[in-house]
Amino acid sequence: MLRNWQSHSDYQKQLIQRLSIHAQKEKGRLIQLDKAISKLYLLNLDNLLPIIKPLYPNFGRPAINQQGIIRSLTLMLDQHEYSITKWAKTVQQDDLFFDICGFDSNKAPGVGSYYDLLWRLWLAMVKNLLRIVCVPIAPMAKSFI
Description:
The structure is a single chain. By secondary structure, the protein is mostly helical. The protein has one domain. The protein has helices spanning 8-25, 27-32, 34-42, 49-52, 66-78, 84-93, 95-101, 111-144. It is globular, with a radius of gyration of 19 Å.
């Protein structure tokens, strides 16, 4: 089950508020991260809800921060980090990265949350590929029986 899918406009408002706080303490770092912040500010994830929602059942512990994880992975690549494990620890220790990603909880997700989302996306892709490949084969298989 997904919890609290934040709209893009809400993320943008929240980001501006959070960045104004960081501007007082870390202005140089904000300037350095300007392009990365702009990418995430413009990255509208609203259209992903119909794709992500079916990956989670309607029961059990709700998944939170899925949008933040996607933004975090985008920021990770922008920062030329290619280890999800290292990156998850970095975001947990860095308030600015935490806020840029738009996490709405008090704590950044652990590395397992990143891999869980990627695993669900990968499984959905494999199921769709099997459906595409197997459906055309079924009528041909009947002719051989």
